[in-house]
Amino acid sequence: LYMNEAQTLINLEKFMSSVCRKDYYWKDFASDYDQWLDDARAIYDEELEYSPLIQAYFDLMPERMDWYDQGVFDNHRVFKDFQTSLRLRQKCFLHDFADKVEDNLDELLTYFDQLVGKHCKLLLVRVDLYYLFEHSPTIRQFDRDIKKLVNRIQNRDRMFKNQVGYAYRLEQGGKSKGYHCHLLVIYNGSARHKDSYFGQEIGNLWRDEITRGCGYFHNGNHRSHKKYYESFDLLGIGQIDRKIEKQIENAHTAIRYLAKPKKTHQYLRVRLYKMREFSKAVFKPSTRSQPKR
Predict the structure, then answer these.
(1) Which helix (H) or strand (E) holds 32?
(2) Residue 181 CB-density burial (10 A; 0-12 exposed, 13-18 middle, 19+ buried)
(3) Residue 26's beta-bridge partner residues?
(4) pLDDT digits (tens, 9 = 90+) for 37-58
(5) Which phi and psi angles does 121 have, rounded to 5°?
């Protein structure tokens, strides 16, 4: 039986979130809990790290539970303590996540400014990489696919020739989005021009080669998409010239979205040990002495 791991995790989290509500009737917990048990067993992997609400569900599975946890199901006071402690753990988790997002943002903006200092022109390409709902992968498969992609970017083969930098953020969305990746690839703008074409090529690589037909993509550099932002004078991707202040400012806004999502609930509910939700290339200063500007 095929199980959609990403969706099951969201379902478990929603359930445990409702359990934490003050108006939840504690005597329903045992029977409500059992309804998700088969799904939970189908995806549980003890080597992975889960967000607090989900980990709490797994810790109460009969085969994992300590004898003293049984009270959560049949003692009102124990249940109340469980609720309080779980609410706090989730709150701390989200707080840490928000802090990390701010750090990532600072890092990315610094990195971008270093690239601007080194190149007169940059070409920014933004592609969002997804999986079809019916082919939603496990987190392990997602991790393998992302590693393949990063490997291709770093090797600068084919469509990545002349890339001078990259950054990406891994997220997990609700119903149809599942695990996905927001990718930014930065090219030397003096050597490369066709940003819409590169966005398309990167998307094709993801869809046809890396995920073997299980993925799809959104090319942020598509002409129609760029036209929309241009009409508000907000276009911050494509060709960026460091002499044009407004372009740099718009680029900052565009990459800000990459590091800091508008939706706070897009964090990964599960991670492999040491897996990074946000990553970028390391800036290599120019070895040539720079002409003074």
Answers:
(1) helix 29-35
(2) buried
(3) none
(4) 999 999 999 999 999 999 999 9
(5) -130, 140
